[in-house]
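Data card: per-record layout.
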Amino acid sequence: MKYSMRDFSGAIEVLLRDETLKSVTVFCSPLSDVKQRIRATRQFFYRYNDIRRGTIILSYGKPNYAEREYLKLCKKAKCLPRRFWLKHKSIKKK
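The structure for this 94-residue chain is written out next.
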């Protein structure tokens, strides 16, 4: 299956816009029969005088277990899945 640049750029764009997001999963077209996904994940680390540096990791392939279960529920309910699946950073309690 071919991946479109729109899917890759959409995942990166959504991740860069919102600082509270940890990862973004994009279900590739057609949404009626999803077999592939793209995930952009943000990783942060601190260096030198508390300057925050980060990297974005792109991965693509078949959906994992949780994503497959979500797609099965959408198919059972006869509705299309969301195009973007967002995961936020966990809030640390002090």
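Known properties of this structure: Strands lie at 21-27, 37-47, 51-61, 84-88. The chain is about 25% helix and 35% strand.

See the next section for split statistics.
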